[in-house]
Amino acid sequence: MEIDEATLNSRLTPLTGLQTLSVGLNALTGIDLSHFPNLTTLDAQETLLNSIDLSHNPHLQTLALNDNSLTSIDFSHNPQLTSVNLNNNNLTSLDVSANT
């Protein structure tokens, strides 16, 4: 069953206690993570993401976004990040100064 972005977001909205989200290998072009403030692990490998907003996920520790089309990413609201995979994206720079 193929799930589009709107359907996925509407089904996940009430899960505010969610800590791990794995949506890799899907044709997602975007995902609204603002409803998951307790998210610690996100796996969105091999999707069609070209941007992502992680500003509502301060507890994020593990992030797998490899094989997407990301051109930039902001980690300034994710000080607990310890593992990041961004292989095979279109990034030209990466600022991790807030993640010491």
Show the helix and strand layout.
Elements: H1 5-12, E1 20-22, E2 41-43, E3 62-64, E4 83-85
Parallel strand pairs: 1-2, 2-3, 3-4
Question: Can you tell me about this structure?
Answer:
This protein is mostly beta strands. The chain has one domain (about 1-90): Ribonuclease Inhibitor (Leucine-rich repeat, LRR (right-handed beta-alpha superhelix)), CATH 3.80.10. The chain contains one helix and four strands. A four-stranded parallel beta sheet has the order 1-2-3-4, with no helix packed on it. The longest helix is centred in the N-terminal third of the chain and has 8 residues, at about 5-10. The protein is globular, with a radius of gyration of 13 Å. The termini are far apart.
Summarize the structure.
This protein has 100 residues and is mainly beta.
Q: Largest sheet at a glance? A: 4 strands, parallel
Please compute the radius of gyration using only Cα atoms: 13 Å
Order of strands, widest sheet? 1-2-3-4
Individual helix count: 1
Provide key terms for this protein.
single chain, Leucine-rich repeat, LRR (right-handed beta-alpha superhelix), 4-stranded parallel sheet
